[in-house]
Amino acid sequence: MSQPAIRPLVAGNWKMFGLRSALAQIERLRALLAANPPGADCAICPPFTLIDAAIKITAGSAIAIGAQDCHSADEGAHTGDIAAPMLADLGVRHVIIGHSERRTDHGEGDSLVMAKACAAHKAGLSAIICVGETLAQRDAGAALDIVIKQLEGSVPAKANAANSIIAYEPVWAIGTGRTPQTDDIAQMHQAIRSYLTNRFEDGGSMRILYGGSVKPKNAGELMSVAHVNGALVGGASLDSGDFNAILDAYRR
Ligand SMILES: O=C[C@H](O)COP(=O)(O)O
């Protein structure tokens, strides 16, 4: 059966990096993309403190601005947290949910991840829902089972291709310079695709990103793997030149 054409997305996750001076990188990226548009959507997810300014800088451009987390409630007495409607109110388009760093640093489990994704959907945001195995789980041969279980527990029943994006990020590949063999990525993305297709009417059109040490030098190879519909990029997204070079994977 032929696969539906899926517009890829390359999203940059700045994590807890970036003072106001880093906004210059977004200005530069805007100019680079205008001069040489890629055949992919592009998003930057800066820290909360830079979101408002980043949205102003990217107005009318091809760059969407995302956030890195949201609370599961629309509002409430939750000191220090940010609600999805607050992000939507700023003009945020995507929100990363369930990144492994939040699962580890903040003890976020699948049910909370699903509740946050539901909150994002309710606010009209697209949820980038992250899954991925640890090295011990991969070495134990459990990677596929772990990821499918995370999808089962984290992706809401009302997910669809417009409101949800899956990011497969092997924990051991994040920030390490290590990436899985392309055969292993292909096997995982095929398994995720099968899962989505079985569970959701438009699961064949939902984007599945790969994340974990995506760099300019390996992006072409990683992005050419079947069912890899873009990337979630950490470190290399902090430099507009590197991020733009990753987007070359989607330029002729
Ligand atoms: O969200 C992004 C991922 O954690 C990947 O980070 P990285 O590209 O620095 O390995």
Automatic annotation (TrEMBL):
Enzyme Commission number(s): 5.3.1.1
Cited SUPFAM superfamilies: Triosephosphate isomerase (TIM) (SSF51351)
Enzyme class: isomerase
InterPro entries: Aldolase_TIM (IPR013785), TIM_sf (IPR035990), TrioseP_Isoase_bac/euk (IPR022896), Triosephosphate_isomerase (IPR000652), Triosephosphate_isomerase_AS (IPR020861)
GO cellular component: cytosol
Entry keyword Hydrolase: no
UniProt-listed Pfam families: TIM
Catalytic activity: D-glyceraldehyde 3-phosphate = dihydroxyacetone phosphate; L-erythrulose 1-phosphate = D-erythrulose 4-phosphate
Keywords: Cytoplasm, Gluconeogenesis, Glycolysis, Isomerase
Active site residues according to the UniProt entry: 99 (electrophile), 169 (proton acceptor)
Pathway: Carbohydrate metabolism; erythritol degradation; Carbohydrate biosynthesis; gluconeogenesis; Carbohydrate degradation; glycolysis; D-glyceraldehyde 3-phosphate from glycerone phosphate: step 1/1
GO biological process, one term: glycolytic process
Binding site for substrate: 13-15, 175, 213, 234-235
Molecular function as annotated in GO: triose-phosphate isomerase activity
Primary localization: cytoplasm
Top-level taxon of the source organism: Bacteria
Compartments, as annotated in UniProt: Cytoplasm
Described function: Involved in the gluconeogenesis. Catalyzes stereospecifically the conversion of dihydroxyacetone phosphate (DHAP) to D-glyceraldehyde-3-phosphate (G3P).
Entry's family note: Belongs to the triosephosphate isomerase family.
Subunit structure: Homodimer.
Name of this protein: Triosephosphate isomerase
Species this chain originates from: Iodidimonas nitroreducens
Lineage: Bacteria, Pseudomonadati, Pseudomonadota, Alphaproteobacteria, Iodidimonadales
